[in-house]
């Protein structure tokens, strides 16, 4: 894998002359302002140039979309945050799979990914949208596929997986090269089986309650 301007096999049209890459290089990056202020907290986004829209921000990067290119997103890493090359390598190994996005282009500080639409499992619980067992099974199978590619699924939790048309997809693979084991997904499945009972699935759970659960889980696992 080259240091920059790496393109997935079969995506020969991607390069510096691609109009989406031009938008990123000439319009987005010069005006985007993001910063990592705390290593264990999501990055802080100070400015997003119009018409770009911020879709989300994690501990490493911000994910943005442009209205003229609804099928793609760009993931821009905050200055000083590691992991860009590792995430590109994860996508290279995964190739094409229905439960994952694809990396189409690897630039200086950013990745271009196919956009996955849906609702995160976190938001399903927050809004009272039932999560069928099929979603859990799909994610299980996707993680097993990743293991078969020599990866170690890590940091798989309710904000990093989504339901799309009643099926499960994995939206964040940035930590799939970490060597240490991670029990987050197994613990989430146990909670699904033990506490996520059918009569309760349409009852919204406030965000502050979920945040308390998240912080309690982190303290328990230290």
Task: Report on this structure.
Helix content is 33%, strand content 20%. The chain has six helices and eleven strands. Strand 4 and strand 5 (61-65) form a beta hairpin. The protein has 222 residues and is an alpha+beta fold. The protein has helices spanning 19-31, 84-94, 121-127, 133-148, 184-195, 207-221; strands at 6-7, 33-35, 44-47, 53-57, 61-65, 72-77, 103-107, 110-114, 119-120, 161-164, 167-170. This is Serine/threonine protein kinase.
Keywords:
222 residues; alpha+beta; six-stranded antiparallel sheet; 33% helix; Serine/threonine protein kinase; protein serine/threonine kinase activity; Kinase-like_dom_sf; serine/threonine-protein kinase; Meiotic_Drive_Suppr_Kinase
List strands and helices in order, with pairings.
Blueprint: E1 6-7, H1 19-31, E2 33-35, E3 44-47, E4 53-57, E5 61-65, E6 72-77, H2 84-94, E7 103-107, E8 110-114, E9 119-120, H3 121-127, H4 133-148, E10 161-164, E11 167-170, H5 184-195, H6 207-221
Antiparallel strand pairs: 1-7, 2-3, 4-5, 5-6, 6-8, 7-8, 9-10, 10-11
Summarize the structure in short.
By secondary structure, this protein is of the alpha+beta class.
């Amino acid at each position: 894998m080259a240091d920059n301007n790496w393109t997935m096999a079969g995506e020969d049209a991607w390069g510096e002359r691609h109009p989406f890459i031009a938008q990123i290089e000439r319009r987005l990056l010069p005006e985007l302002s993001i910063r990592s202020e705390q290593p264990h907290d999501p990055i802080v986004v100070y400015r997003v140039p119009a018409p770009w829209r911020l879709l989300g921000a994690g501990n490493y990067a911000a994910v943005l979309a442009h209205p003229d290119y609804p099928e793609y997103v760009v993931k821009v890493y905050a200055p000083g945050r590691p992991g860009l090359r590792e995430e590109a390598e994860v996508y290279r190994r995964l190739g094409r799979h229905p439960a994952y996005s694809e990396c189409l282009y690897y630039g200086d500080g950013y990745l271009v990914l196919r956009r996955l639409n849906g609702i995160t499992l976190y938001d399903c619980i927050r809004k009272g949208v039932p999560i069928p067992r099929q979603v859990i099974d799909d994610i299980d199978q996707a993680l097993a596929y990743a293991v078969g590619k020599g990866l170690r699924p890590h940091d798989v939790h309710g904000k990093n997986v989504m339901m799309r048309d009643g099926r499960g997809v994995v939206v964040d693979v940035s930590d799939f090269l970490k060597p240490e084991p991670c029990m987050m997904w197994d613990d989430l499945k146990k909670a699904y089986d033990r506490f996520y009972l059918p009569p309760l699935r349409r009852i919204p759970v406030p965000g502050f309650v979920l945040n308390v659960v998240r912080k309690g889980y982190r303290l328990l696992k230290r």
